[in-house]
Specification:
With 163 residues, the chain is α/β, with parallel strands linked by helices. It has a 7-stranded mixed sheet with strand order 5-4-2-1-6-3-7.
Length: 163
Amino acid sequence: MKSYLYHQLSLTNQEIRLLLVAPGPWGSDLVCELHHASLGLRPEYEALSYTWGDENKRRDIVIDDFRVSVTVNLEVALRHLRLESEPRVLWADAVCINQQDDNEKSKQVQLMLDIFASASKVLAWTGEASYDSDDAMDLISTFWRFLGKIRDDKFEDLFHPIE
């Protein structure tokens, strides 16, 4: 398989790559494009936080007409996040950073706080459902309802910045 050819990022204007995930039905190939964007121009994207998973378990996605091997965990996350009728713009480190270029990796890691802070939304992918994941999600939901009740009751000042 021919390797994907990354185009150099500009180091002077906080340039990053964004992954445009083309719409499609669940079972179809994941077809994507990589675009350069300057953080200073406030591009619209969502940042994906996830675990890479087992580096030896891989699947292909299509980026700019190239087959690109990614971890199964990233492929499954992208499949779940892909929309059926419109593209979705994401930042995911494994494909948005050239993993073969140590200099670029170093510079992009230094930008990660800005990358996540500039995203319109940060998505956390913890993996596919397991036998006990519904229990964990129920616990998180209960916790958020509890925090909402505290906020709505007498501790409202805890949830607002001091002016």
